[in-house]
Amino acid sequence: QVQPVESGGGSVQAGGSLRLSCAVNGYTYSNYCVGWFRRPPGKEREGVAALHLARPNAYYADSVKGRFTISQDNAKTAVYLQIGNLKPGDTAMYYCAAHLGRCLHLQPSGFLYWGQGTQVTVSS
User: How far is CA 80 from CA 34, 42, 77, 123, in A?
Assistant: First the structure.
């Protein structure tokens, strides 16, 4: 089973950018959907982007289109989330998660394997 491990969070000023990394190891076949989620302070966890390790398409929540980019490395062992023009509202714990099969939605309940998260704090 895949074991996501996030890294790359930190404290940045508004307008800056960050690239979060999710190491995805422990699988034999690349039939996994890998997604990024975030939990802002006092709010529910929400999906922001996902991609399938064996397919080229990426999926985004409407709220982050244009500023967030999800990608993977050629070896299919890491999934990245590039965040541009950071806003204080992007402050959250960011999680990487995965499930077997196609990417059909960004509902957290549909993802089985979760990392521990990495904190992103954006100051104005």
Answer: 10, 25, 10, 22
* Nearby residues of 124 by Cβ (< 8 Å), 6 or more positions away: 13, 14, 88
> What is the tens place of the pLDDT at every residue in 31-63?
899 999 999 999 999 999 999 999 878 999 999
Bridge partner residues of 120 (DSSP): 10, 92
Distances (CA, A) of 68 to 30, 112, 118: 23, 23, 16
- Residue 25: pLDDT band (50, 70, 90) is confident
Phi, psi of 106, deg, nearest 5: -120, 30
What gap in Å lies between CA 14 and CA 116, rounded to an integer? Answer: 25
Give every CB contact of residue 24 below 8 A, 6+ residues apart in sequence. 2, 3, 4, 32, 34, 53, 76, 77, 78, 79, 96, 98
Which amino acid would we find at residue 105? H
Angle formed at CA 96 by CA 105 and CA 7, multiple of 5 degrees: 155
